[in-house]
Amino acid sequence: MKSRRRPYSEQRPFDTGGGVWSVPVPIPANPLGYTLIYAIESPAGPVLVDAGWNHPESWLALRDGLTAAGMDVREIRGVVVTHFHPDHAGLAGQVRQESGAWIAMHEADAALVRFMHDLEDGAHRDFQADMLRRAGAGAVEVTEVTARRPRPPAVPDLILQDGDLVDLPGRRLRTVWTPGHTPGHVCLHLEDADRLFTGDHVLPEITPHIGVYPYDRTDVDPLGDFLGSLEKVKDLGELEALPAHEWIFHDTAARAAEIGAHHEEKLRRLAGLLAEAEGPLTLWEVASRMTWNRPWEEFPAMSRGMAASEAAAHLRTLEVRGTVRRVKGSDPIRFVLHS
């Protein structure tokens, strides 16, 4: 079964079969358009996979979409959040407030959510500004990127670990930890139906953002984690994928292989870019020379910040593999091909 992506105005709640409904929830002023929220029926009440963006329009879409599916938001048993990003976790707190539902999240993302709640706005801006400066961003870009801070999502009630079964009576919904897009991203394997809720990990056409925050961390390798997580999903076999964006599709394993090949090619191009450079490049210079879906000059500041974090993730993987190195003592930090 496949449901091609259409503009949000053409989206409707959709019965995917097997007691699972898809409910599109808009993301205001975002090119993705909407998040696909899934409601899984159970004798003890529905469980949601993700909840959507925290916005009045999004809340109405979720509430009314559940009603169209024959469900009442006040009867939701729980919300499993695939990862902490606002288009997935944003409304989980309001669902809990309306229904008393529990919120479940992987322990790695739960730790980030608690950190976000503890971090004051001024400290958050200072952190971002210093990170951007060390990457080689200009003063105007620093100011624009640090101007906004999303509201942190609700702190979860339940912590999930790899392999845990979700509290879903009558069904077998197993947690599959797939770090990369976030440290605690999870897919959810509905074992009694051979279906996989993939969140942002495996999407049918686009690929998720893989970044490093702060950009110059050397204790993590998100892209390496992501590539390993793709292998993990491939091992599950030809499952039907129910992703958070775009459309439902068959054979998760085949698409995971395609995404892995895409990033390996991107790593090869990046190594070639550094080989052709006349000298060490700042992270900002690397990002500006990479191939994106539009010219760097047309990127708004926020998109440049995300592109820099993705460039940092690819550089970090090349560094782990011994292909590139960072110039010792450089500020802004600079990278060269390893000699």
Keywords, please?
339 residues; Metallo-beta-lactamase, Chain A; four-stranded mixed sheet; 10 helices
Account of the protein in words:
This protein is α/β, with parallel strands linked by helices and 339 residues long. The chain has a single domain (8-258), classed as 4-Layer Sandwich (Metallo-beta-lactamase, Chain A), CATH 3.60.15.10. 37% of the residues lie in helices and 18% in strands. The protein is built from ten helices and 14 strands. The chain has helices spanning 56-68, 86-89, 92-99, 107-118, 121-135, 139-145, 222-234, 252-276, 283-289, 301-320, and strands at residues 14-17, 20-26, 34-40, 47-49, 78-80, 102-106, 158-160, 173-177, 186-190, 195-199, 240-243, 281-282, 324-326, 334-337. The strands form three sheets. A seven-stranded mixed β-sheet has the order 1-2-3-4-5-6-7. Strand 3 and strand 4 (47-49) form a beta hairpin. Pfam families: Lactamase_B.
Q: Output the helix-strand order.
A: EEEEHEHHEHHHEEEEHEHEHHEE
| CATH architecture type | 4-Layer Sandwich
Q: Sum up the overall morphology in one term.
A: globular
Biggest sheet, spatial arrangement of strands: 1-2-3-4-5-6-7
Number of domains: 1
Please indicate the percent range of residues in DSSP E strands (runs of 2 or more): 15-25%
Largest sheet: 7 strands, mixed
**Assembly classification:** single chain
The end-to-end span amounts to: 50 Å
Q: What is the typical, i.e. mean, pLDDT?
A: 92
Based on CA atoms alone, the radius of gyration comes out at 20 Å
